[in-house]
Amino acid sequence: MFASDSQLSDLELIDIAIKQLHSIYGATDLKECVSCKMRLQVGKFLALTRSDLVPSVYTRWCKEEGFDESLCQTKFGYPSVEYGALGLEFTKMVQLVNPEGLDGDLYCYYHDQDCHVMPELPSIRMAKLWPPRPKLYEAPKPQGETFNVLHLSDISLQLDYTLLAESNCSQALCCAPRSSNKVHPPPDYDYSSIYDPQFGLSFYDSSYASGHFQKGPYVDQFKTFTPTWLPSHEFGAYGCDTSELMLNNTLQIIRDFHENHLNFEFGIFTGGMVDHADSIHVSRKDVLDSQFRGYRDMLHYLENFPIYSAMGTRDSFPPNQLPTKSLTTQFNYQWQFDFISDLWHESKWIDLDAAKQVRYNQVGYSIITKRGLKIISLNSNVWNTENLYSFIDTLNFDPFGIWQFLIDELIESEINEQRVWIIAHLPPSKHSLPVPTKIFTKIIERFSPKVIAAIFFGYNGKDQFNLIYGGDGQVKDLSNLINYALIGPSVSPLNGNNPAWRYYSVDTETFDVVNSFTYITKLNNTFVNEGAEPVWEYQYSAREAYDPESLWPMERPLDMEFWHHAGEKIRDIPHINKMFNSFEYRQSPYDPYYYLNFQVTEPTTDELILQNDNYCKVTSFSVLNRKECMLTDDQDAYKEPRYLRTFIPLIRPNQSPEYLLLSGPPSTKETESIVYQQRQNPNFDQEEAKQSDVKAKHNRRKSLRDKLHKAHQRVKSEMRKRSFGMELDDV
């Protein structure tokens, strides 16, 4: 590939490699996925000969192709403790992957914006990994007595949260000193005019310095030098992660509920302590400080009961990364497992044996509560599509050792007649690799319902649940149902969520969830409450919400059949579907039904799309399940979205905020000021604009249908040509 490379200087070698990458990327006769895999071949050859040059080559190529400079630096740049560059991880990956095999296919599908062909996956047989399942394998019967368990998720503590910073910014995370919007507000724009003047805007420099709320002095928003669309308030904003003020308030409220009447025996935290800032702004120190201060605050307020935690995908440095045990790179990550092991053990949340598992096992740990329930915590970066190490040797059944660990723990519990909860951060239904997801599903199927009592995730930020069906997950009836998973709501308000937490009423003998109770605070109320603390309110009980007629027996827990019927109601009953969306966003103004403003009796087309999407969301345990669920005559090329749905607040002076629901990459934020200025134009014809909007919407939908049809034809063509026929036979 590089002739006489031993005689070439470093600069000459770099130039040749970059020219090859440009040539491959610019070729018009190559299919998208083929182009990506050929670029991996270039990287593999270079990594095997001069691995030290890979970051330089790919960073420069990326910039010269016109991609964002900071993105190129974080994705391919040399490692640094100052920001999360992945040059080392990328180099190790291209060195060890098979570009022409399943490794390359999966990497290109998830990491190349032009490759949309999901490869054919190997079949998996695991029968020899465990003893035969007994014919009688029913869950034990509940005894009627209960205790309470707290569930927290996705705190995402933003240490650089700044009062009056831009909360409607053009970056991934707002409310930081660096936050800005590419489009500046017009000169006459006044944020305060959108609210009723009788309510004072809340911009107070308050604190919990003494462990109790202290209202600080008012800060004048007009004294800031940079105009902002949405200046951040002290307790938080919807485009940002959790301020330390909001975290203290949340934990204080939970402590008060615990001491007054709830009396939690323990809590689970399904990960997510580090914020969602762009990797270029995340340093090793940030990761350590976020976890230290977040868990410190948790221990301060909730000192009377243990918290069992899972590692979040971003609770590592660089974010989302976890090497397999066979790689020498693993030692570069040991410091973070030493840190978190010591932190949890010194907080007296886990015992010495569990601390050793966290430190040396790294993919998970188990602990037994005082009542005898085993909690197994898994490191979900194993199946995270953002973890570059997960694309190495994808035909290997268990390169991280996580599945053997989980199986051994479950077999031990089966022998001891012990029930188990599984907790992890990332649910397999989001940004997860398909092969590990299939393995996980088969393990759950083998040990349910007798051993596995419940499964809990976080990550999504939304209040959701997943049903787990056997086989390929496409037969969604009771006879094929094997278990369910609950996805906890986030404390963080990022992406339009109101902060929330919940607790479970749990049977004392079977450890089944008998009921679920969710509490929320409406963050937008804190924008105009003159600096007072947020008001937390009870939102709903799962039993009452999904069984409004009280047909479900009171003595029966909320088992998988209960959630199966809840999924059917979301599919079939429009107001239950709307209620589900309200639960997801916790009654925030970013609920899509606020935007669609449904007032009609019969569901509209948009309503039916949301309704079907919600049903597929709750009945799909994997991304592939959801993809198959969404296949319809007019939407037969569904793939996992590459961008999160972006909510852009459109502010109009002297009126209440109007929220626009936009889909697409973050660059759509640049349209906001244009729309704003158009509507302020005295010659702006509202009716003409409305007709224009309808016509534009029709054209966009037609264009999208055409693109989907063409994409589907490409997929079918590619799949006909592919026939891997590979199996992971009885490993």
Automatic annotation (TrEMBL):
The keyword Hydrolase applies. InterPro entries: ASMase/PPN1_MPP, Metallo-depent_PP-like. One of its GO terms (molecular function) is phosphoric diester hydrolase activity. Residues 682-731 are annotated as: Disordered. Residues 687-696 have a biased composition (Basic and acidic residues). Coiled coil: none annotated. Keywords: Glycoprotein, Hydrolase. CDD domains: MPP_ASMase. The keyword Glycoprotein applies. Residues 697-714 have a biased composition (Basic residues). This is Calcineurin-like phosphoesterase domain-containing protein.
